[in-house]
Amino acid sequence: MELPDLTPYLGQITFGGLAGYAVGYALKKVGRLLAIALGLLFVALQLLAQAGYVEVDWTRIQRDVEPLLQQPALRNLWDRLLATLTYNLPFGASFVGGLVLGLRAG
């Protein structure tokens, strides 16, 4: 069995992998910054609540946020993100591979 010549697609595959890696790396860095920001916000709210400046209804916050954190909702968000990032790209497979590598490296 003879393998097809992939030379015409080599540039697309390379660019797709590099673009995916860059996006994955950036997403991980932004995710870390977002986690730090949310943590600092939580600490600030707790300090303000302890000092008596604000009253936080954590039960209501939990009730509002819990549906967003359910597994199907997160899976749907991930699927929509991948669909958006690989829309109309002929090198989608190499992009997704690079994205995974970038997420692991970041």
From TrEMBL:
Superkingdom: Bacteria
Primary residence: membrane
InterPro entries: FUN14 (IPR007014)
Location relative to the cell: Membrane
Keyword annotations from UniProtKB, A to Z: Membrane, Transmembrane, Transmembrane helix
Any single Gene Ontology cellular-component annotation: membrane
Transmembrane segment boundaries: 6-27, 34-53, 81-103
A Pfam family assignment: FUN14
Family the entry assigns: Belongs to the FUN14 family.
Protein name: FUN14 family protein
Organism of this sequence: Thermus thermophilus (strain ATCC BAA-163 / DSM 7039 / HB27)
Lineage: Bacteria, Thermotogati, Deinococcota, Deinococci, Thermales
